[in-house]
Amino acid sequence: MRTFPRPFLALSLTLTLLGLGVLPARAQSPSSSTATPASASSTQDPAQALVALSKQLDSIKTTLNTKASDGTPLNDLRTQAGTLQQQASQWVETLTPQLDSVQSRLTVLGPPPTAGAPPETAAVSQQRRQLTRDQGKLDGEIKQAQLLNQDAAKLTTEIAETRSEQFQMQLATRTASPLSIKFWSDLAHAFPDDSTRLKRIRGLLADGFADAWQAENRMPFVLCMLGAALLIVPGRKLIERLIFALVLRYMPEGHFRRSALAVMFTLSVTLSIGVAVWLIYQGLNWNGTLDEDIDALMLALIRAAFFAAFVAGLGRALISFHHPSWRLPNLMDATAKVLRWFPWLLGGAFLLLITLEHLNAIAGSSLPAAVCTRAALALLISGLIGAALLRVKRIKRSQDHEHRQTKHALWVGALAGLATAGVIVAWIAVFAGYVAFAFFISWQMLWIGMIVTSLYMLTHLQHDLFETLLSPKGRSGQRLQTAFNISPGTLEQSSTVLSAVCRVLLLLVAVGTLLMPFGGGPNDLFSHIGNVFVGLKVGELTIKPGAIFNALLVFIAGLLVVRVIKRWLSEELLPKTKFDVGMQMSIVTLLNYVAVVIVFALALKTADVSLQSLTWIASALSVGIGFGLQAIVSNFISGLILLAEQPVKVGDWVSMSGVEGDVKRINVRATEIQLWDRSTMIVPNSQFITQNLRNVTHGNALGRVKVSLPMPLGTDAAKMREIMLGALNDNESTLETPAPYVRLDDVTGSAMTFSGVAYVRSPRDASAVKSDLLFDLLARLEKAQLPLSTPQSMIVRNLGPLGEDSPAAPG
């Protein structure tokens, strides 16, 4: 499987971030003004900085009370209030350690001397007074910063509520219906004034072109126009062909190639068209010759061009009419064919929307003209969406008629139903006179469609990326397995977890972006989530999202380092020592436990969690240990004792309470013993400490082999002894020291019993060696014509109650 080089991956990620960065939010009005907030620098005097923040907060409150009903200034005020709240919080975090330092120094000095005690020196008294003044000053500044933080938070909430009220009032505003005569008569009366205003804008544009055609500006103007023309069509197609060739050559086959290609095609359309419009602006305003109003209009058009191009490129990449195999959604070719032009039409509709909106704002168009423009735009956007839905519905009906049904996800049908309802509501609202509401519905359909399709594409991209990078069969996955000794299952689980985390983050960003038209946004959403977690206290423990994230990074990095050290110890260092395999595994396990505890302590320190904050946890655990956790703690301590004292180590052959086998692993709670049938017995560690245990292989014990042979009474004992000693000495597995020996154990009325004993290197070899000796002895006895003793037949006789041998039987 081929993989793509790191430079190409870095280029892809850079283009992705660039595309997300250039994607504008909503086009802001050029007349919106933002005040520069005071910076909370550590080099500033805290008192002066807090006074400046207080004045700025009062200025925001005054502006809020005097502002007209316009959503854009309220958004700016809300941003300023949020920035002020963050700066006040920073001052609290900056001054609190200083106050703690002063208090600790006062603690070192101790309390002032009481009456009758020896007086302290003048230097100590002066230092105490200075520290007391500093303590009071810092305490007052911290309280002031906390109060500013609370006031800014309340002001942010008040601004959001005010904007929500204004937004609802605006949507509820009703004008004359386009079906009424009044609507057109008002437009006709305002037409002469609007025409005069538009002529002024047209004159300004003509002056701008005339200035750009001057001798000193002509060459840059021509070059910029030529560059824009080349970028829009031939340049974009050339970039797409280059991307296509690079992807086919360097990216591995699979789903990631398809999703990455969709993202790159989207960015190519966005950047080529957006940069082309930016070049047009640069050519017209090369030496700053444009009028202020025209310059603001052009800047708004640049932002709108990037957004419109993104909408068109996104739809084009997902439909993928020319390359069906690269298509991400489950669309038929017929559906893709009827929808191929709609992304461009919707992008153009959005560009027209922003152009007309800013043109009306700059020209100062009348209310009838603005209402007429918004009504036309609402009908245009909703009409395009409705036409697309009708065409898709027609294709689906023909498909169902031919009995080739394609299943789609539930959310696809829900979005289609909502879009259909939105189109119907928008048209009814326009002809009922609720033009502002219809315009909002039409814009929201376009906005939500863009967000949902972007989320769909990015979700596929991140899922395919993790699946490719962490695939056990891929090159990167194999390198991770080799470098960190990670199992294939762990890689697959990591891919699933990381993909789920990224999916949740993308969903949160999408939800926050959807809230932007209602006065919210991604920053507000994460701010609310952060405030919830920051305000969450459990006992004396305060949860901070940033600290938790840093602690997770420290913990994961620490575990990776521990894993590398464990592998180095088990594969490099310990095999070169005199320790046996069981001792090596015990050392690695014990050090692993110690290292994990240290990493966990470092993670707690990074999360700003002190032992004092965990006292309530210790108290709760002490009660639990006294009841349900006593056995677990006992097994845990026993496991540490086993690892430290080594009465049993990995590889030993143990026998206890009917369990006999090899120790395979000593865990924190229990020990794994492999039995003779290859099954595994899990034994709690406490049993190794509290019960009698036989360790067969402890202390390098030798294996003992004993062979007993019953021989007839007439057997030559000396010859039998010689045969058995020969067999014991000739076996390769028996040891010379201790030397084998043969004894005559017993002589009965029917047989003589000879026993031979030999020693082997390990008790594990005794059974196999005994079998070999028996085969060898049987062959030697047959060759020497010495038969083994046969057992006598058993006679079963009736013993009573009145049998012939019964004492009660008659004589």
UniProtKB/TrEMBL annotation:
What InterPro entries would the database entry show? Answer: DUF3772, LSM_dom_sf, MscS-like_channel, MscS_beta-dom_sf, MscS_channel_2nd, MscS_channel_C_sf, MscS_channel_TM-2
Gene3D superfamilies cross-referenced by the UniProt entry? 1.10.287.1260, 2.30.30.60, 3.30.70.100
Which keywords does this chain's UniProt record carry?
Cell membrane, Membrane, Signal, Transmembrane, Transmembrane helix
- Membrane-traversing stretches: 219-239, 260-281, 296-318, 338-356, 368-390, 410-430, 436-458, 497-518, 547-565, 585-604, 616-643
Location in the cell reads: Cell membrane
Q: Taking every annotated instance into account, which residue ranges of this chain make up the domain DUF3772?
A: 142-199
- Tell me which residues make up the Mechanosensitive ion channel MscS domain: 632-698
Main subcellular location of this protein, as a coarse class: membrane
Q: What residue range is the signal peptide?
A: 1-27
Q: Disordered: where is this region?
A: 26-46, 107-126
Per the record, membrane topology reads: Multi-pass membrane protein
What is a single Pfam family found in this protein's UniProt entry?
Answer: DUF3772
Q: Which family does it belong to?
A: Belongs to the MscS (TC 1.A.23) family.
Q: Which PANTHER family match?
A: MINICONDUCTANCE MECHANOSENSITIVE CHANNEL MSCM, POTASSIUM CHANNEL RELATED
What this protein is called in its record is Mechanosensitive ion channel family protein
